[in-house]
């Protein structure tokens, strides 16, 4: 099955692009993510695209930012891939981005719709040396805490080893296509029981075993509730809200105020109904919660220092062959 870029709202301007994949349901959150990218990277030299299976109109919030709205024809490429209420077929679109966009882009940065750009150096990411690998990614949060411990899906499959988070992926299009990664993903879903596959992340980790380079955690800072203070020691560029607690659904006020406030302001202007579930910035502080948070930080210091020092604190350093 050939993957094609069926329609695009405008021509490509640059040779690199940040691309988000979504359906109509997740379009408001994609718009929020893109609003953070354009705000923090005003002089960017890369395109920003939203890729979808169905034709989507440009969200009102993005009409002045030159976003490419792209419809991809994937045919039955994902037939038999597992889905759920939370993970639709849109979760697998990232797998075919290099094929759909190879005529337009040399490199693609795929980002999930629950990612905020907080740094202004995203253009530097496209210049990183991937050492001939088709994909650059950041180790999954689980491996930050316990590098030698298998993730839940690895345990089910009887596997272990390096494992990345699939929410931020730097893709070298020609290398990716040459390595036939899409076919490897299809082979994986055929070989393994769907109950043991955690959707796109499991599939990509299996298909890219030994074929991905490790990026600094600052490119995919996976925000767990227990470690906000560690951000002060890292040149974080992209914050990724990996749990079910998102800035737009943070009723309890667990996330930092700055993220909740950003989401609240954006949705209040463009999607008022989505602003209702965000805890107000004036949520009272609780001493017990602060003390518990500080204690959890203390218990995580060794793991954080280990992960941070793998890259020597340099967000430009890429590890060609991650070992954990």
From TrEMBL:
Keywords: Glycosyltransferase, Metal-binding, Transferase. One of its GO terms (molecular function) is glycosyltransferase activity. InterPro entries: Glyco_trans_8, Glycosyltrans_8_dom-fam, Nucleotide-diphossugar_trans. CDD domains: GT8_A4GalT_like (cd04194). The keyword Transferase applies. Its EC number is 2.-.-.-. It holds the Pfam family Glyco_transf_8. It comes from the Bacteria. It is an enzyme of class 2 (transferase). This is Glycosyltransferase family 8 protein.
């Amino acid at each position: 099955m050939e993957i094609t870029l069926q329609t695009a709202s405008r021509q490509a301007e640059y040779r690199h692009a940040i691309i988000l994949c979504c359906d109509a349901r997740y379009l408001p959150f994609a718009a929020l993510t893109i609003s953070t990218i354009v705000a923090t990277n005003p002089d960017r030299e890369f395109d920003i695209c939203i890729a979808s299976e169905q034709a989507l109109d440009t969200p009102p919030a993005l009409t002045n930012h030159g976003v490419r709205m792209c419809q991809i024809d994937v045919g039955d490429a994902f037939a038999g891939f597992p889905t759920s209420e939370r993970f639709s077929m849109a979760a697998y679109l990232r797998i075919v981005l290099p094929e759909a966009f190879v005529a337009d882009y040399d490199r693609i940065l795929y980002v999930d719709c629950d990612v905020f750009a907080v740094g202004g150096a995203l253009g530097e990411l496209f210049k990183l040396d991937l050492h001939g690998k088709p994909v650059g990614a950041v180790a999954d949060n689980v491996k930050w805490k316990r590098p030698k411990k298998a993730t839940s899906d690895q345990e089910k499959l009887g596997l272990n080893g390096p494992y990345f988070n699939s929410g931020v992926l730097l893709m070298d299009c020609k290398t990716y296509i040459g390595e036939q990664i899409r076919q490897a993903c299809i082979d994986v879903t055929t070989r393994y029981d769907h109950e043991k596959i955690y959707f796109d992340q499991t599939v990509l980790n299996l298909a890219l075993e030994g074929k991905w380079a490790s990026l600094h955690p600052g490119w995919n800072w996976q925000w767990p509730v227990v470690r906000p203070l560690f951000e002060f020691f890292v040149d974080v560029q992209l914050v990724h809200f990996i749990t079910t607690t998102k800035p737009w659904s943070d009723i309890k006020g667990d996330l930092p105020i700055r993220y909740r406030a950003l989401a609240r302001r954006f949705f209040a202007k463009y999607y008022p109904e989505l602003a209702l579930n965000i805890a107000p910035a004036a949520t009272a502080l609780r001493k017990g919660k602060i003390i518990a948070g500080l204690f959890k930080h203390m218990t995580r210091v060794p793991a954080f220092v280990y992960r941070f020092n793998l890259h020597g604190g340099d967000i430009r350093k890429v590890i060609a062959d991650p070992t954990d």
